[in-house]
Amino acid sequence: MKNKLLKTLLGIFVAAVFLFLSLRNQPIKDILSTVFSAKIGYVLLALLFYFISYIARSEKWRIQVENLNYKVAPKTAFYALMLHFFTNSFTIKLGAFVRCGNLRKTASVPFSSCLGSYLSECVFDFLFMFTGILIVLTIKFDEVLAILVKLLNDWGITKLFNNPLFVTVFVVVLVGVIVLCAVLYKKKLIFKKYHSKIKEFVDSVKMTFKLKRFFIFLMWGVLLWGMLFFMNLFLFKALFNNEISFIFVYTLTTFTYAAWLIPSPGGIGSVEYFVLQAFLLFGLSETSALAFGILSNGFTLLSTLFFGFVLIIIQSIFGVFVQKDKNTQPA
Question: Are 108 and 327 in contact (CB under 8 A)?
Answer without folding.
Answer: yes
